[in-house]
Amino acid sequence: MFDKTLAELAGGLAAGDFSSLELTESCLNRIKTQDAAYNSFITVTEELALNQARAADSLRASGKAGIFTGLPMAHKDIFCTQGVRTSCASRMLDNFIAPYDATLIRKFNEAGAVTLGKTNMDEFAMGSSNESSFYGPARNPWDTERVPGGSSGGSAAAIAARLVPAATGTDTGGSIRQPAALCGITGLKPTYGRVSRYGMIAFASSLDQAGPMARTAEDAALMLNVMAGFDPLDSTCVEREVPDYSASLNDSLEGLRIGLPKEYFADNLNPAIAEQVQNAIREFEKLGATVKEISLPNTALAVPAYYIIAPAEASTNLSRFDGVRYGYRCDNPVDLEDLYKRTRGEGFGDEVKRRIMVGTYALSAGYYDAYYRKAQQARRLIQQDFVKALAEVDVIMGPTTPQPAFRIGEKSSDPVQMYMEDIYTLALNLAGLPGMSVPCGQAQGLPVGLQIIGNYFAEAKLLNVAHRFQQATDWHTQAPASIKG
Amino acid sequence: MALERSDVEKIAHLARLQLREDEVEGYTQTLSDILALVDQLQAADTADVEPMAHPLDAVQRLRADVVSEDNQRELLQSVAPAVENGLFLVPKVIE
B1 pLDDT exceeds 70? Predict the structure, then answer.
């Protein structure tokens, strides 16, 4: 049962092969007995899960079940979940029991999904390795001495370890796609504004977007059908019709125009990754696609622009953590300034403090034009590169990451080296475009991710392209050797 | 650009972050490294480029000015560190 996809489990539930309660108990048991090796969960919501599973089974008995009714999943611990600790992997929110549900949580609840728990992540989603979590690093099931990527590292590790069939993630600069690549699973970052951010603890509001993480594109489509759509509670959520993402999965790729940005295959790319990506491209040619080299000339601006815009927005967003209304509060503050300073100094971890300070500096008097305004100008140049390229091709493909999963501790003392981990993923968030990562091979026995980038609101096209690839290949079915039945 | 120790102390104050004495040097180094990275942007030619604040260049959506929220004070204050009579408690501000 643990090796089945959401689509297969939905079939099994509908056919009566097993109940949601049996399925949920089996998942909870796997998490209990095996997650010590991966640390992929911060909180397991056993009681909630069992209640939801029983309710799902009753609903099915009364003939009212939908496709998602009774399907188990996990949520990144960044989504407020009513009555459940929602920590954002920070000491600051270690004691925070969310008083309301994020819109995304509400939608999955209404669809009948079962919440198994809340997954580990980098603190406040700031990181590419899951090492900045207050609860310790999550580990990559392919090699537990290596990182699962981040920030949605717990979600990716739990799926790769077959503890859960699917989980939610968020992606501000690659936080769905990079861990998906490093753990050999499928992840999708939708167009900015496609999925509501209400109740999703904010990191950088003009970049943050929630998305599905699963083993197959077919499952990601099922999840996006639940997640996507307008929400009046998020002022940046787009009012636009949501297609049925499952309907076009099998469309032919005959004549699909693929662009390969030459900048994404330059010096810093591991040759083994380049080779696997090239193999994947040849697979698409067999499926009828045509391939051409393109250029995204402002690619080199993405990392510096991102590391101004994201910290600037983070420093503003995280000013709400003041020790007054919720979360951590320091002991015995002598005055208000002491309350703020010690609460924040003790409540935030290193990387979060670093980014708050970078953002504070970039926004401080006299520096705004040189940093924030300049970065926003670079952001438009980056976006225009994509707009031009996507007028000539249907999708852009390349590696998701420059290297396979690295060792825990290898980059944690050098933030700049860690930031370079996201060189292929950041630009999409700056442009607001959707992108996926799908498993496309292995390098040194570790998974390699193929990144597929599409035009605004082209999620259905991305899922179609990924699904056809997964029909023709079996990289997405490969499991780490350590996985136990 | 390279920051001095005093710069980091000033930034930390502006951000209301208490740093331990032994942390300041490490932050001075890593923040300087990060600023050196982002300073690569200064070489980009951005003359006449309109800054981009939102990926879809959307404008703020407005709604009718009517009451749409219930008062949930007790629920929302249930997670506060210190509350009394429906008020958040903070150290004395005015002597």
Answer: no
Domains held by chain A: number: 1
The Cβ-side half-sphere exposure at A342, using a 13 Å CA radius, reads 11
Of residues B37, B75, B76, nearest to A303 (C-beta): B37
Give yes or no for residue A484 having a pLDDT over 80: no
pLDDT of A296-341, one tens digit each?
Answer: 999 999 999 999 999 999 999 999 999 999 999 999 999 999 999 9
> Is the residue at A291 inside a domain?
no
Q: What's the DSSP call for residue A97?
A: B
- SS3 call for A143: strand
Nearest CA-CA distance, residue A333 and chain B, Å:
7
Task: Give the CATH number for residue A198.
Answer: 3.90.1300.10
Q: What is the mean pLDDT of residues A88-103?
A: 98
- Nearest-by-CA chain A residue for B9: A357
**Interatomic CA distance for residues A459 and A238, integer angstroms:** 14
Nearest to B79 among A97, A301, A415 (CB): A97
Domains defined along chain B, listed by start:
5-42 (1.10.20)
pLDDT of amino acid A59: 98
Cis bond leading into A151, ω under 30°? yes
Mean pLDDT over A284-292 rounds to 98
Of A128, A129, A175, A246, which is the active-site residue? A175
d(CA A312, CA A308): 6
Tokens encoding A107: 């939608």
Half-sphere exposure of A409 (CA within 13 A, CB side): 2
A370, A305 contact by CB (below 8 A): no
- Is A457 part of any domain? no
The domain in which residue A219 lies consists of 6-255
Active site residue A292: no
Please provide the average confidence, as pLDDT, over all residues in chain A: 97
A252 is catalytic: no
DSSP string, chain B: -PPPHHHHHHHHHHTT-PPPHHHHHHHHHHHHHHHHHHGGGGGS--TTPPP-SSTT--------SS------HHHHHTT-SSEETTEE--S----
A337 domain residue, yes or no: no
Mean pLDDT within A153-167: 98
Residue A299 lies in a domain: no
The confidence score (pLDDT) of residue A485 equals: 67
Residue/partner pairs of A30-36 with CB below 8 Å, 24 or more apart = A30/A2, A30/A162, A30/A163, A31/A116, A31/A117, A31/A158, A31/A163, A31/A164, A34/A161, A34/A163, A34/A484, A35/A158, A35/A161, A35/A163
Q: Which residues of B touch A232 (CB under 8 A)?
A: 63
Tell if the pTM clears 0.90, that is, is over it: yes
